[in-house]
């Protein structure tokens, strides 16, 4: 597949020609003697939970723990969410399920690719004038390998509902009710691109990842603008589909009417629209439907309108987001429209000053409330089997607000800290309130498991892996004097390069026979180089702090032995407390400094060595293992239902049922 | 498929004619078309790499 087809082709599915999963499983019907409720709270940190329990802030967590227990939960290496949740889903390690990072590299061209999904263009197409029409469906393929635990439950007729599970887009084949989570794209096929319309574009950096800034003009109390949509793969020239819209400003009051397609609504300044449907025309008589939120940030003196990423419309999903295919429609009919993009919180808009802290929280609390309504809806009909429900806000708030909890953080702002310094604590309290809200659905048959994929630590300093490889001679550039100008290795001389960094924790060897321009011979040369690099990386000292930025450099082949080892890096970096990969290195950039200060609002992270940032396991049954890990929870679920644990699974049961 | 004409410097065209013949192209037009297609493909590729970056950046972890 060419790079240009990377994501755009997914839209071929909009003709309804996408290959639908053929359901080979029958939905579980069995009445089980127990019910298992698993709440996945992304990034819930065991140390913060313990601290807040001591403070008396989490009474409902405390009650569950009093009946069962709390333990640090061993996370994945690396402790990235797609990797960790895939460990839990399959009971396998990354070499067994094939997910090592948010992004992998294509060894043909050294470019990043999404690790979880592959889009394939339809093989047969017909050209009609400006149109290119597929004769058969394109495919979106889940790259995660291994059987999901709910598929095993289904084989034993045990029902389950899996809501917003990360690393499960498109959803694994099943007729159990599942809704995809982290990894589900927006309508553009991206991780999320907002649009911001302003008469004052100079105040915002125009080159924002995750957003587009549009200059608009107020003429006669009107603004005319365009909302960009997906690439129209039905046209030979592949333009972006788009919808024009108009904003009519009240000449006196800070109020505006927005007219877009069939939608017409009035917003006051500082008001959110809720979900609005938009239709992007593709071919005559056919359009793709998405949903987005409008926020009228300012009417005067400057006009400022924020439009969220356009999510896949759950009432008419153009791409597969659920099983069975009508599940999302059922949810809409009961609950109204809801977010479908994997990580809905607009961290890019906050990081780039398009949304303020208050506006970001307002939006994310709305997403959280949608999730809680969905959880309650499912709990009301939860009579047997397993219900898994995932919450992303715990993770996203810690990423964005860590800076305001720590006066030593480079992004600490005392003014903002006065108002938002308690946001991390607040989201933990919100989770406690969630437990209070669902308490009435938990009967004596219900085993409650609260789990997270990893903990959290500050991200104060960033390590430029590629710059270090260049400075130490392992990576060669054709024109090093402009090294900090390019990205995606555009100045790399692969004929002399031994190693490169890509993704959030990965170091790859330019291996002969694997990489297209590999120069390092397999065998002794490769083994010696990997060992040498791991040792050197672990011995680097940050001259400013005196600390080692890299706490562990894991040699992948020493810790993993599964069939998908070749998808992953050769060395996985485990950063020290306070450190992370830099902003630029993951996409093949070479910034000037090896270690840089992080001054972004994105200020907490979890790219550390696994032993430094375990996740959390809480249950209302005794935890009998002193050091459980993610794959143990998978084994525990199967064991609780009396099922045999497959030999390939890594874990063992860790709960005691009395 | 429609055709369009473009103007090219006479001296350059003479060179193109010579090299097209040497390289085994059936005509200077075929040689020019091939060269232009190759260059346009490079630009297409570059644009797409930019798109890849933008789409990944929405993830929040990278810039």
Which tags fit this structure?
heterodimer; A: 658 residues; alpha+beta; Alkaline Phosphatase, subunit A; 3 domains; eight-stranded mixed beta sheet; six-stranded mixed beta sheet; 15 helices; 27% strand; disordered N terminus; B: 63 residues; mainly alpha; 2 helices; elongated
Structure description:
The complex is a heterodimer of chains A (658) and B (63). In chain A, a hairpin with a 4-residue loop joins strand 25 and strand 26. Chain A is built from 15 helices and 34 strands. Chain A has 658 residues and is an alpha+beta fold. Chain A has three domains: 31-99 and 144-184 and 342-456 and 613-656, Alkaline Phosphatase, subunit A; 194-312; 460-611, no CATH class. Helices cover 22% and strands 27% of the residues of chain A. In chain A, helix 3 (81-90) packs parallel to helix 15 (630-640) and helix 9 runs antiparallel to helix 11. With 63 residues, chain B is mainly α. Chain B has two helices and no strands. Chain B is elongated and about 55 Å long. The termini of chain B are far apart. The mean pLDDT of chain B is 78.
Task: State the gist of this model.
The complex is a heterodimer of chains A (658) and B (63). Chain A is α+β, with helices and mostly antiparallel strands and 658 residues long. Chain A has 15 helices and 34 strands.
């Amino acid at each position: 597949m060419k790079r240009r087809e990377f994501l755009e082709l997914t839209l071929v599915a909009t003709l309804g020609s996408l290959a639908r999963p053929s359901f080979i499983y029958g939905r579980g019907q069995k009445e089980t003697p127990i019910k298992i409720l698993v709440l996945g709270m992304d990034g819930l940190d065991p140390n913060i939970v313990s601290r807040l329990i001591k403070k008396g802030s989490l009474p409902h967590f405390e009650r569950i723990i009093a009946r069962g227990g709390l333990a640090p939960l061993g996370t994945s290496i690396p402790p990235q969410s797609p990797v960790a949740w895939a460990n839990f889903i399959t009971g396998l390690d990354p070499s067994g399920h094939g997910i090592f990072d948010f992004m992998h590299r294509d060894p043909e061209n050294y470019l990043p690719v999404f690790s979880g999904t592959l889009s394939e263009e339809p093989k047969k197409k017909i050209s009609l004038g400006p149109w290119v029409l597929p004769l058969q469906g394109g495919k979106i393929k889940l790259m995660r390998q291994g059987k999901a635990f709910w598929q095993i439950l289904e084989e034993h007729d045990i029902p389950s509902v899996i809501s917003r599970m990360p690393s499960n887009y498109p959803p694994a084949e099943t007729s159990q009710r599942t809704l995809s989570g982290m990894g589900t794209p927006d309508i553009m096929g991206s991780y999320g691109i907002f649009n911001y319309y302003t008469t004052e574009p100079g105040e915002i950096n125009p080159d924002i990842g995750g957003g587009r800034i549009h200059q608009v003009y107020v003429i006669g109390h009107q603004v005319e603008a365009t909302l960009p949509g997906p690439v129209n793969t039905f046209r030979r020239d592949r333009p972006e589909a788009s919808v024009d819209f108009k904003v009519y400003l009240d000449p006196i009051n800070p109020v505006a009417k927005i007219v877009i397609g069939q939608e017409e609504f009035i917003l006051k300044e500082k008001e959110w629209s809720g979900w609005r449907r938009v239709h992007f025309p593709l071919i005559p008589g056919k359009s793709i439907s998405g949903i987005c939120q409008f926020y009228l940030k300012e009417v005067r003196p400057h006009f400022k309108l924020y439009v969220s990423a356009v999510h896949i419309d759950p009432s008419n999903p153009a791409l597969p987001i659920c099983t069975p295919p009508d599940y999302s429609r059922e949810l809409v009919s009961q609950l109204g429209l809801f977010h479908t993009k994997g990580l809905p919180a607009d961290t890019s808009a906050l990081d780039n000053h398009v949304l303020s802290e208050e506006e970001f929280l307002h939006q994310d609390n709305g997403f959280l409330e949608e999730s809680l309504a969905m959880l309650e809806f499912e709990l009301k009909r939860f009579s047997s089997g397993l219900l898994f429900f995932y919450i992303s806000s715990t993770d996203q708030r810690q990423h964005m607000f860590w800076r305001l909890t720590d006066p030593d953080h480079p992004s600490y702002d005392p003014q903002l800290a006065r108002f938002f310094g308690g946001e991390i604590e607040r989201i933990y309290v919100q989770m406690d309130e969630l437990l209070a809200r669902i308490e009435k659905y938990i009967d004596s048959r219900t085993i409650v498991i609260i789990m997270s994929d990893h903990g959290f630590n500050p991200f104060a300093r960033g390590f430029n892996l590629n710059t270090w490889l260049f400075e130490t001679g392992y990576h060669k550039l054709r024109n090093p004097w402009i090294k900090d100008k390019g990205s995606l290795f555009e100045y790399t001389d692969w004929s002399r390069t031994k190693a490169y960094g890509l993704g959030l924790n990965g170091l790859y060897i330019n291996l002969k026979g694997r990489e297209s321009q590999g120069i390092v011979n397999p065998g002794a040369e490769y083994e010696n180089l990997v060992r040498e690099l791991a040792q050197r990386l672990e011995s680097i000292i940050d001259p400013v702090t005196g600390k080692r930025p890299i706490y562990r450099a894991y040699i992948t082949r020493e810790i993993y032995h599964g069939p998908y080892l070749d998808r992953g890096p050769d060395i996985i970096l485990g950063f020290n407390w306070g450190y992370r990969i830099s902003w630029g290195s993951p996409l093949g950039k070479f910034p000037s400094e090896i270690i840089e200060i992080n001054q972004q609002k994105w200020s907490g992270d979890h790219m550390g060595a696994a032993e430094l940032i375990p996740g959390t396991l809480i249950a209302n049954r005794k935890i009998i293992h002193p050091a459980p890990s993610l794959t143990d929870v998978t084994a525990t679920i199967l064991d609780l239902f009396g099922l045999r644990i497959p030999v390939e699974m890594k874990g063992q049961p860790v709960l005691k049922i009395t | 498929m429609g055709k369009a004409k473009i103007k090219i410097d006479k001296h350059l065209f003479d060179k193109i004619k010579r090299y097209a013949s040497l390289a085994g192209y059936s005509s200077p037009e075929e040689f020019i078309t091939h060269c232009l297609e190759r260059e346009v493909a490079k630009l297409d590729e570059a644009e797409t790499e930019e798109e890849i970056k933008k789409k990944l950046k929405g993830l929040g972890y990278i810039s």
